[in-house]
Amino acid sequence: MPYGQVNVAPALGRRSLLAGAGGALMLAALPTAARAASTTTASAPTTTAAAGAARTSLVTQGTMLVHADLHNHTVASDGDGSPEAAFASMREAGLDVAALTDHATLFAIDGLSSSEWRTTGDLANAANDPGQFTAIRGFEWSHPLQGHINVWNTSDFADLWRAGSTGSLYRWLIGRPGGLASFNHPGREPGRFDNFSFNASARNQLVGLEMFNRTDDYLFEGWSSGMTSPLVACLNAGWRPGLTGVTDEHGTTWGFHEGKGRSGLWVTENTRAAVFEAMAARRSFATRVSGLRVDATANGVRMGGVLNVTSGDVRFLLDLDRGPAWDGKPLRIQVLRPGTSAPTVVDVIDTVNGRVTDFTVPLDAADGDWVVLRISDPSLANGTPGPAGHPCNDFGVAYTSPWWLRP
């Protein structure tokens, strides 16, 4: 949909506003610093593609893979680069889908103003190339204590004046039925989205949980300080997000980052409508390597779906490939289930790149209503490990979106 008709140049250097007499009073509103084998019916994009695997799934039909980065910043908030350059950079880098999501703070201090919001929409419309490259405008609702939440596909934005708490943001979002949102770098801010307090009316619109942000795996974020794994806390609370990875770029080289988070989306075509539909269906996976293809089914149900299972064996098919660069590379699949402070791993399966792995795991809804597959490189360590001896203390490569065992 149109994002706006007014072209207004973004303001530059607004950090200097904090030097005023009242600037110190506003510091609490600022975002915190970031931590160190089938034929599909869709046609593949013709833009420069990242090196890696083919875009056709070996376990499902009807969609194609697009590589996406849905969390990026510019000088419209606390980034360094001009928003006019961002979309071109991401397309040149080989991304198929890209979003600008500058911070929405309080009174636009180090965050989006209304004119910058309109400008970002104009830039996204100019860069958008249906069928080839999808450019999206969004914003990052940024509370210094409760956390940050990305929002896409809305005609306006909510800063801390309009929505000063997670609960009020959910109410704002519910009033915009097409809007979609994501929990960002989950667990970094101490309030953790009011401990992932659940709002059933907002559940369908909360479509993302960042598992990779920049170079970090958030599976055990805060665990060493006595906190619950964000994945466990979020899913056990009742939320049903897809899992994603993002660069959270604040510099000037948008898209050109090996080792930083990114997402795979399975779309019917590369358009805004199809991208948002895939996000809402949770047909996404999180990764931090370029060119990776991940698709998976459980009893024939694609990741992000609901299984008609209360108790019994569930057959998984996992399509995992990064192309010739990883030929023969040993990888590992961990089956994650609900736990208390950390996810329970009920099975570990060794595999190699380029293989469809077929395995069966007994699941019981009495043990919890979700299951996630984590793919790892067993030769490397997790930089933020969990409990001693936990199977996920190796290097995370990707996460599928969850399946749920109940409607």
Automatic annotation (TrEMBL):
Keyword Methyltransferase: no
One GO MF term: 5'-3' RNA exonuclease activity
Polymerase/histidinol phosphatase N-terminal domain boundaries: 68-145
Alphabetical UniProt keywords: Hydrolase, Signal
Pfam families cross-referenced by the UniProt entry: DUF3604 (PF12228)
Top-level taxon in the UniProt lineage: Bacteria
Residues making up the signal peptide according to the UniProt record: 1-36
InterPro entries given in the database record: DUF3604, PHP_domain, Pol/His_phosphatase_N, Pol/histidinol_Pase-like, TAT_signal
Keyword Hydrolase annotated: yes
Protein name according to UniProt: CehA/McbA family metallohydrolase
Organism of origin: Verrucosispora sioxanthis
